[in-house]
Amino acid sequence: MKFQRKLLANGLRVIVVPMPGLESATALVMVGAGSRYENKSNNGISHFLEHMAFKGTEKRSTALDIMTLIDGIGGEFNAFTGKEVTGYYIKSSKNHIEICLDVISDILQNSKFDQAEIEKERGVILQEISMCEDTPMRKIGDVYERLVFGDTPLGWDIAGEKINIKNMQRQDFLDYMAKLYSANNMTVIVAGGVDAQESFDLVERYFGKMNTFDALRYKKVELKQDKARAFIKEKKTEQAHIAIGFRTVGSSTPERYPLTVLSAILGGGASSRLFHEVREKRGLAYFVRTHSEHYKDIGVLSTFAGLDPQKIDETIKVIVEEYAKISNIKYKISDKELSKSKEFLKGHLVLELEDSRAVAGFYGQQELLEEKIENVDEVISKIGAVTKEQLKAVAKKYFTPDRLNLAIIGDFPNVSRFESLLKS
Prior knowledge:
The chain folds into two domains: 4-207, CATH 3.30.830.10; 229-421, 2-Layer Sandwich (Cytochrome Bc1 Complex, Chain A, domain 1). Helix content is 44%, strand content 19%. It has 16 helices and eleven strands. The protein has a six-stranded mixed beta sheet with strand order 1-2-6-3-5-4, sandwiched between helices.
């Protein structure tokens, strides 16, 4: 799978990924905008704005008009918001890719932001926030990143605070877009059974006149941590949820690949160390998984688990012990374990990228957030090249007590009880 890239005169980056034999195609626009570009008073606006997509433009006046058009080509549409990117996509038959690009360009340049639609969607988002609060399995990630990144935009919830959502008005959306939705802060990706030159021509037609300006830049995270930390979000639940891990490095750092492999060894599948020790061997948790997340300038390697509140102390101890073992030269990683974890990562990547939507996201994410774009085979090669020496080096460097953070959602009033477990 190979991509082709073109830079338009207005600075818009265009990537086309032909996938011969595929009858579908995805048009995805990703913007370098997300919750880390917000401030205290507008936290949540990136997500709210994404919800306002497909709600009506000057050309297609209502949400029903847009939905009817997309339904009429058998397409599917959606949008998503992260801390560093926001995306809008339509997936359809490859024969309808022009309609997909037409609609997305229309909503990004001509959305009406009708006040009645804003009021309706305000209620939807407030309910979404409440739903997340009532779903600890989803909420634990937000609680954990607030602990790790503190009271900074990167530590704030993507959905925002309810008070902000209640106060946002039409002009707030226009002002926000005027700071970030510049052509040179976007990338358009077309992936699927398409012709490359035809796709470039269509993107030029529908996006070539978009405005360009100096987009708002994010503030680099500068954190100081000299001891292990724990935080509890008190909530009466049948199951406790925990997230525990370490601050690491950003997405463009070579250490990213050893950290990713290390996360797979620890909690990447049913045969991983933590799944075996926590669930299979001791029956402490229903699920346990480890993930390595990388933002532009900082990252985290974290283990998540949902468990019986009566077994939380033992579970934390086991996870901390496994972290210590993997950073201790006495507990060696075997050749078999290393090979299995690499194949786990490579296999999951290949399976994921059978879909044109995932392929578009794969290349778009790299274009916006990383220093260079790597093809799938390059990523697989870099995973395969990770050595045990590299794993030892990153584990020793980052798996230290002064970087350890533990977030908990559950009915536990005393945080000091858990802080002591992190020192063991």
